[in-house]
UniProtKB/TrEMBL annotation:
One of its GO terms (molecular function) is hydrolase activity. This is 5'-nucleotidase C-terminal domain protein. One of its GO terms (cellular component) is outer membrane-bounded periplasmic space. It comes from Psychroflexus torquis (strain ATCC 700755 / CIP 106069 / ACAM 623). Residues 74-212 form the 5'-Nucleotidase C-terminal domain. SUPFAM superfamilies: 5'-nucleotidase (syn. UDP-sugar hydrolase), C-terminal domain. GO terms for biological process: nucleotide catabolic process. InterPro entries: 5'-Nucleotdase_C, 5'-Nucleotdase_C_sf, 5_nucleotidase/apyrase. PANTHER family: 5'-NUCLEOTIDASE (PTHR11575:SF24), 5'-NUCLEOTIDASE-RELATED (PTHR11575).
Length: 251
């Protein structure tokens, strides 16, 4: 009897280890619509509650104040919101870059499409920074030859979109053609320039192909969203304006 049992279990083992493929013969699915009618799981809710409260407190923390609402569609070529964003990058990233490399940032360019929200008048909170920059993009500095900087300017002239820029002064004639361009008050010279942007654009995102010819790229390990949070904390009141950094003569 004992030998029989041993042989039986050995046979079962060999059978279970056989190489017959497992075949899916049927699948079932059901559409469950998410709504308030679904009963909450109290145990799960109790577990999440302290984390939710902590996140809500952090997201609602007041960092600054703005007397006027700002949206990326407010004006053409340059907007108060875009100017604030590019100026923030220049102000917050430049000291870090200069300390690490001994060079200063000459120009900043972000992309219009990357601005995902406006800023309402009143309190500026941590949530504000998450709304305008929900992505995990980081600040990088590209070293561009003068020819690539000119390609950057031509890109802006051709697109005529209010991409956030700083350090550049671009003037178009009444026909929309380039009349004059300066970098921090000076004409473009035959030298390399340091341009702050995002790790998305540095790879040619938004058709900014000129970045692919960068002589060097420096990462600051600084997320754009965190930079804006730090900038808001630094400023009691935020009130940027449209200025002359990108203009077009009227007929």
């Amino acid at each position: 009897m004992r030998k029989f049992l041993i042989l039986f279990f050995i046979s079962i083992s060999f059978w279970s280890c056989s190489k017959h493929p497992t075949i899916l013969v049927k699948t079932d699915g059901e559409l469950v619509r998410i709504s308030d009618s679904i009963e909450k799981n109290k145990e799960l809710e109790d577990f999440i509650l302290p984390y939710r409260k902590r996140i809500q407190e952090e997201m609602s923390a007041v960092l600054s104040y703005t007397p006027k609402a700002m949206f990326k569609s407010d004006t053409k070529l340059n907007t108060p919101l875009g100017n604030m964003m590019s100026d923030a990058v220049l102000e917050m990233a430049n000291p870090i870059f200069e300390k690490r490399t001994g060079h200063k940032i000459d120009v900043v360019i972000l992309n219009y499409g990357g601005i995902r929200s406006g800023i309402n008048a009143g309190e500026v909170t941590t949530r504000t920074a998450y709304n305008i920059m929900p992505f995990e993009n980081e600040v990088v500095i590209a070293e561009l030859a003068s020819e690539e900087l000119k390609a950057l300017v031509n890109y802006l002239v051709k697109n005529k979109v209010a991409h956030p820029i700083a350090g550049l002064q671009i003037s178009l004639d009444a026909e929309g053609l380039l009349k004059e361009v300066k970098v921090n008050g000076e004409h473009i010279q035959n030298k390399n320039y340091y341009v702050a942007t995002s790790d998305y654009l540095i790879k040619g995102g938004d058709r900014m192909e000129f970045f692919k010819k960068s002589k060097s790229v420096h990462s600051l390990d600084y997320k754009l969203r965190n930079l804006f949070i730090d900038y808001f904390k630094k400023k009691d009141t935020i009130a940027p304006k449209q200025d002359n950094r990108f203009t077009k003569l009227q007929n």
